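Thread: Modeling a multi-component assembly for a lab meeting

Hi all, long-time lurker, first post. My supervisor asked me to bring a structural picture of a complex we are working on to next week's group meeting, and I have zero experience with this. I have the sequence lines for every component (311 residues in total). Could someone generate the structure of the whole assembly? Inputs are pasted exactly as I received them:
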Amino acid sequence: MYSPSPLTPAVFHILLAIADGEKHGYGIMQEVSAKTGGKVILGPGTLYGTINRMLEAGLIKESGERSDPEMNDERRRYYQITSKGRRAAVAEAERLQGLVRVARAKRLLQRPRPV
Amino acid sequence: MSFSEKMYRFLLRAYPRDYRGRYAEPMEQLFRDRLRRVDGLGDLAALWGRTLADWAVSVAARHWERVTRHTNFLADPARRCLFFARSEASSFSRREITVEHLLLGVLREEPSLVPAVALEAVVRAIEANEPAGRRVPPMEDLRLSEEAIRVVAAARGIAHGAGREAVAPADLAAGILRETDTLAGRLLRKHFSDRA
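Re: Modeling a multi-component assembly
Sure thing. I ran the full set together rather than chain by chain. Output:
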């Protein structure tokens, strides 16, 4: 069973970026930047340092090296989430959801309006 | 290749060699991808600002990870043993922390592990075996020798076997005892057999 200790923001962002499909480094960086409105831009050092630790921890795995048809002909390493990584992401999302619930109960956040 | 690409390739040399071997290529590629989307001098300056900040933080982090790779499960007293061991190794102008330095570190943290007389004898024997005399130790990062890595791994196994997560100085001493081919292992073994 995965121990639900808090993940670092960079690890959680990367897990979220590849939760719905494998991506290469630049794809991950773009996704994180887009989903955070440009507030989080993972530089090469931070991105690959975090990827290295995540590979060692078994949260992600390399899923091959090939070129991206939407970019140039350069070959790129792709990364995909593992089942352990997915469990870690779910645990972290639930932990954050719990915190948001507390923040709402303390009236620090507005309740979401029904759609 | 543009000047920026050449400059970034040069900066990558600051990362640890093994890490560089694995990630220098994709990091260069990522930098190139970002460079292609730069529009004007302002954009280029902003990219370099972010890149240099990322480089400075991540270079330090990768070197620190390399130093602590074998020791990040140690509890505070055992961590202090490592700190003292590093200081001992530096004071003898060594480039790596050997089992002997590890023993000196353990004994500085936990002198009660051996009687005072034996403690002095152990320290003297190790000092006599060092090729260089003592100097004021500079603050520097040193790697563990292969034997010292084995000691730390054995100490971890001993702690786990006793149902403990954290490694104690006594576990490190027990790990040193297993290194019978080292001076430190022989000295500790002699002390324990004398006491028995």
